[in-house]
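User: I need a structural model of Lipocalin-like domain-containing protein from Pedobacter hiemivivus for a docking pre-check later this week. Nothing fancy, just the predicted structure tokens so I can convert them on my end. Input:
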Amino acid sequence: MKNIVKILGVFLIVTTVMMSCKKDTDPATKDFFVGTYKGSISYDKDESTITSSDGKVTVSKVGETYNFFFGNNIPDITGVKFEKQGDNTYVSVGSGLTGITIDASTLKMLVVKGGATWTADCTR
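Assistant: Understood. Predicted structure tokens for Lipocalin-like domain-containing protein:
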């Protein structure tokens, strides 16, 4: 009986170690691009233009969509959906919100919607 308990104990330890060391987890499934990016940002609508070479964009996720919160009094972009393109790079998809490419270290954006234009060339 003691041998069976020892074998089961070793089996449980080995199984736990193997599961915790699993290396095939795709970092994209861990929302690795949620956070703050800094760099050049701009917004243009009608007669109003806002630009900043030291701006910031904070990316958050709610459910299956992402939100982009800008500094410098630039309106936010919300409800963006993405598709994976290549290794851990995502491109925005959907009506009126195309033109965003993001990965763990860079954010590039050229979005035109409702007569307004947002741009971003940021890193973190």
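Before docking, keep this in mind: The first helix runs from residue 2 to 20.
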